[in-house]
Amino acid sequence: MATPASDASPARKTSIPALNPLDLYNVRALLSEDEQMVQDTVGRMVDEKVLPIIGRCFEDHRFPREIVPELAELGLLGVYLKGYGCAGLNAVSYGLICQELERGDSGIRSFVSVQTSLCMYPIYAFGSEAQKQKYLPGMARGEIIGCFGLTEPHGGSDPANMRTHARRKGKDWVLNGAKMWITNGSIADLAVVWAMTDEGIRGFLVEKDTKGFSAPEIERKFSLRASVTSSLFFDNVVVPEENVLPGVSGLKGPLSCLTQARYGISWGVIGAAQACLGQLLDYTRSRVLFGRPLSHTQAIQMRLADHSRRITTAQLLSLQLGRLKDKGDMTSSQVSLAKWNNVRMAIDIARDCRDMLGGSGISAEYVPVRHMLNLESVITYEGTETVHQLTIGRELTGVSAF
Ligand SMILES: Cc1cc2nc3c(=O)[nH]c(=O)nc-3n(C[C@H](O)[C@H](O)[C@H](O)COP(=O)(O)OP(=O)(O)OC[C@H]3O[C@@H](n4cnc5c(N)ncnc54)[C@H](O)[C@@H]3O)c2cc1C
Question: What are the tens digits of pLDDT across the range 291-327?
């Protein structure tokens, strides 16, 4: 016997949705009160300070530096580190922060990710006590901005093939080479630079005014326009021994930072997808075609349902990943799976939302096209999809096919 859809009659019946359409499984109920409070606080800041300006910043190719004190005031810089002026919140809270910030724009989340996970984290994890004291409190206050130089012009997916190198000269090191696509580069006071040495890859803390160091901005981007992206050049840059990270050598240094940042990305992009879906739910209700709102058509409902399915899956994936991280059980291949799945989810949703807006979808009046363009960077940086697929393939088979 055919089973009719339980609420299929009358055909055009409408009702007030009982569930939050952007959180269909009530994932929020799985959060502690503290975690909910963090999310609400950051969400309010995004609504009040980011959303009113971010579209214009994207159009103007401008990072809104004026919100850095706001981010610092809320304790969002280095939020999961303990001591040195940092709040010491858990991994799930950090994830929720990324989600709310990226609901505003991937550029804002990128700024916080780079500052926190790619610059403060390596100093915290591998730095000397003097380096921690010198840099971390100022970075938490947003007075010292950091950037992370790993990618080189000849290929970011294969960082072991690094050409930037440092040689010992007396008590100092001399750094030569170039980095490319470096977030925050031109506004950074401090660059965490990974370079090949006779002892393997080491991390160097290069201050902005060091002779021979330059960081020109990369212009004419179509993506992450509200974020600064730069090249870094090192021409016989002298770095004192006390600016070398003593606690790590080899690729595990930069890769462990990337694991932290990729974790945050897996959460962040959920916010971008929610922003797109939220706007489309409103739009399809009010856009009348062929005598009925778009939201009353089966094809549109199926597309919206697919977005909801994929957002819900991503939320649960990131939450479990966060709980594993908080227990100290998270692995880098688990992070690869979440980064791959969730960014793919978000970019597909942003592109589909752009399409459902018709011609309006290319207008800056609506958010999907901005998120869609941003996500083209997010799917590329911190490991392309292929890199994460090969990481999981290696985990499953024990064979590296890179
Ligand atoms: C906006 C932006 C901000 C960024 N910020 C930073 C930053 O702050 N710091 C930093 O260090 N880097 C940063 N990056 C760099 C980013 O991490 C690299 O772009 C990324 O790792 C890819 O490197 P690539 O661009 O050199 O591409 P390539 O490594 O040249 O890859 C090109 C293509 O080849 C594919 N590929 C690679 N290896 C294989 C393989 N074995 N088999 C099959 N296909 C393969 C890739 O998936 C990709 O599709 C940023 C990038 C962007 C766009």
Answer: 999 999 999 999 999 999 999 999 999 999 999 999 9
Ligand 1 nearest atom to the CA of residue 149, by list position: 11
**DSSP-assigned letter for residue 290:** T
C-alpha count within 13 angstroms, C-beta hemisphere, residue 144? 21
Residue nearest to atom 1 of ligand 1 (CA): 377
Question: In whole numbers, what is the pLDDT of the chain averaged over residues?
Answer: 96
The full length of the chain comes to 402
Q: How far is the CA of 377 from the centre of ligand 1 (A)?
A: 9
| Ligand 1 centroid from CA 269, angstroms | 18
* pTM exceeding the 0.90 threshold for the entire prediction: yes
Q: With helix as H, strand as E and coil as C, how does 198-266 read?
A: CCEEEEEEEECCCCCEECCECCCCCCCCCCCEEEEEEEEEEEEHHHECCCCCCCHHHHHHHHHHHHHHH
Q: What is the SS3 assignment for 244?
A: strand
Cα end-to-end span (Å), the chain: 52
Q: Known catalytic residue: 382?
A: yes
Q: Which of 164, 373, 384 maximizes ligand 1 atoms within 8 Å of its Cβ, making it the mutation to test the pocket?
A: 384
Q: Whose CA is nearest to atom 12 of ligand 1?
A: 151
User: Best of 381, 388, 392, 402 to mutate for ligand 1, by most ligand atoms within 8 A of CB?
Assistant: 381
